[in-house]
């Protein structure tokens, strides 16, 4: 092969990479392509190797983790037997040597690094999480301007941590000068204790009050942590006054966090409080298909539908089920039939009562000698209020509807009203009369 000059080598590299990018642009969402590939450029070519420069090492890790397969597929289509090597810009390498630890742009706990797989593109949006998703994207695009703080809550494995990381990933890629901190509340507590013991509270406060964005996962661990609540109260005030963005996730709403100071409950609700509910069938089906693709296994449509129909709790349960099927296929070198999937996933599948909201309204109304219309009306009569609260309680704890979904069934009531009703029954359920009433309603709904 004829030896190329340095300039010809660079021009050839740019030409080959541009050809690849042209095809890549048609294979990816516009937002993904613009975010991760517009700033890449071919810089070197040796016949069997193409050197591509990316803005920094994070960019490279992201491309390798998420887009290497599609790039390799394009190379095959073009008939090019090339090994593409990504390299960070020389400036980034110099910066990492010269930059002092105290001036790092992004602070991530060593125990809890930013997960490059958790992006807005990889998040499956459905009715149960669309409000949280759209709020998170708005916050990432305009930190400190809207929904500050943003408080996302919901059960285990429903995508709260995914959205928290997606915000961090988006900001990291778009705004390299912004300083962000991502940490679990439990790790924050341990760091606070360590700082107290070492008499380094000044450094602790400077670290978290110097950020532009504070992302805290599992904020429910604040309960009974008086010292951390005190410290977070002042940090919250400082950041909020400076219009710095705060995002928190929790397994429960601010009002439900036990022994959380009222002043913090109030502040956590200053922006937007939004819930992620259990995914509906369409969302579970999309999640299942995505996870099957990620695990690179072949499952029949009927097995995929079986998983989506029967594993309703959360995304982690779906992931666990798929890993079991993958392990079986790897060990036995055979495909998974529907019968085999039922056998292997028996422990994942909980028999759940097939109860609809209409049935709940009918049975509860009948028990109180009312009509479903009465429950959905705005009347504040004592017997109607109690019946309505019980119906909301069953909708939440049996059917698993989100607070907003329940509110829509009762004339568009907001989530705080629904939450208050559910909490009221939680407090009353040990009362013998209420206990008998609940048991009778559950019996008629064939729940016991």
UniProtKB/TrEMBL annotation:
PROSITE patterns on file: DNAA
Broad class of where this protein is predominantly found: cytoplasm
Domain of life, source organism: Bacteria
Annotated stretches, region: Domain III, AAA+ region: 113-329
Region of interest called Domain IV, binds dsDNA, as start-end residue ranges on this chain: 330-448
Annotated positions binding ATP: 157, 159-161
AAA+ ATPase domain boundaries: 146-274
PANTHER family tied to this protein: CHROMOSOMAL REPLICATION INITIATOR PROTEIN DNAA (PTHR30050:SF2)
Role noted for this protein: Plays an essential role in the initiation and regulation of chromosomal replication. ATP-DnaA binds to the origin of replication (oriC) to initiate formation of the DNA replication initiation complex once per cell cycle. Binds the DnaA box (a 9 base pair repeat at the origin) and separates the double-stranded (ds)DNA. Forms a right-handed helical filament on oriC DNA; dsDNA binds to the exterior of the filament while single-stranded (ss)DNA is stabiized in the filament's interior.
Free-text comment about domains: Domain I is involved in oligomerization and binding regulators, domain II is flexibile and of varying length in different bacteria, domain III forms the AAA+ region, while domain IV binds dsDNA.
Protein name, per record: Chromosomal replication initiator protein DnaA
Organism: candidate division WOR-3 bacterium
